[in-house]
Sequence to fold (449 residues):
Amino acid sequence: MFPRFLTSIVSCRSVAVLAVIASLLQVTNIVLSWRLKQRQLLVASEAVTMEEPSSWPGSRGHHISASRHRDFHLGPKVSDDHQAILSRIAHWSVLDSSGEFRVSVGVLQGSDASPDGIEQGEAAGRYGITLVTQCSLARLHRLPSLTVHWQGPLSIAVFVLSGEVQAAVQTFHLLRKCYPDVKENVTFSLVFPLNSPTSPHINPTADTTPCHKIFSTIHQDNYSFNGVQYPNNLLRNIAHKAATTSHMIVIDIDMTPSSNLHQSFMSFAKKKGLFEVNSSEKKTVWVLPAYEVKEGAGIPENKQQLLDMKKSGMARPFYQELCLKCQRFTDYPEWEKTQAAVGIEVTPVYEVLWQDPWEPFYIASTKIPLYDERFRQYGFNRISQVCELHVAGYRFMVLDSAFVVHEGFKTASSFHSTKDMEQEKNRILFRQFKAELKVKYPESSRRCY
Fold:
C-alpha cells in the first residue's frame, strides 16, 4: 500500500490534470460552436443568393463579389417593394423539417383582405374557400388563367433553385402588375434549396418588362432541377399554411376547376352550415370528378359540355390511360348519369368508401392532416395524404355539377425518363407510411388496403 501522503499527492495531481482537460474541452467547444454558427450564416446567405445593397433596411453596406453577382439574375430596375420582399426572404425564411429547403410563407399577399365578403371565423381563419396549388417557376404561366376560372382567394407555393429567387420575386411583381385578379386574390409563397446550381433557363427580367414577355424566356422540363428533388408535398403544405380561409380545394397548377365552382360551393356551404363551428361535416371531403381534355379543346363551362366532349372523344376520365384504378372509385358512370343541379349550387350525390389506390381531388377543411413531406418527385405523394384521411375517419362525398379538368391527355410518353425509378422508391416509402398510420391512429379500424 502507498503511504498516505503519496496517495494525497497523486490525488491532487489527478484533480489538476482533469481540471486542465476540462478547460481545454470547454475552449474547444466554444471554438467549434462559433465555427458552426459562421458556417450556418454562410450557407443561409448563399441560399438566398442575392445582393443586399447598403440602402436596404438593416444593411451595413456589405457587398458581394462580382463573380457571384452574375448568378443572381438581377434585373436592370428593381422597385422598392421588390427590394423589401427580397430583404424579408433573406431575413425571415426558415428551414423545412428536412433541413434541405428554405421556406418563405406568404411573401406577397392578395390585396383583397376579405375576398369572400363574409365575417371572420374561428381559429381556422375566414369562412370561405381558397384554391391551394403549387408549381415551379417555369409553370407559373398557368396562374393568370387559373385565377380567372376560380374567381376567389388562391394560395400558391412556388419552387425555385437558389439562384432564381430574385427572378421569382420579379415575376410575382410583374404578374400582380399585369393581372388584376392575381393582385387581388393570390398569395405567393416561396421554397428553394439551401444550395443548388443556377438554372440556365431563367434570364434577367425587369419591372418594366411587357406583360406578354413575362414567361417568354422560362423553359424547363417537369421534375428536372439539376439533381434537386422536387418537394411537391412540402409545397402543398406551404400553400395550405398560407391559406387564411376555413376551407380549401387542393389541385395541381395544370388542373382547372369548373366554371363558378368557387361561388357554387360558397352557396352550398352557407346553406348547409359548413362554416359553422359545430358543423357535422367537419370530417367530410367533397370529391371533384377529374377529367382530361384534348390539347386545344378548351375548358368545358359546365357538366353538360363536359359530357358532350366525352361523347365526341375530346374528354375522358383523368389518368384513363396511365392509371385508371387511381381514379375509377370516383364512379364516373354514376356521376355522368346524374342530372346536373339547377342553378349555380353544387350538390353531393353519393358517398364513396376509399380504396387503394384512389387519389381524388377534393374540397375540405383547412384543418385536415398535412401531406407527408418525405414524398418527392413522382409517385404516391397525393395518395398518401388521401389514405391518411381515410384512416383518420373522413368521409368522401362526390359533388354533382363540379369537376376539375386537365388540359391535354396524359400519356406514358409525356413523362420524364426517371418516372418509374422515382415511383418504385416512393412505393417502398408508402408501405412504411401505411404501417406508421397504424401507430398514429391506434383506435381506427380503417386501413389503407
In short: The first strand starts at residue 94 and ends at 95.
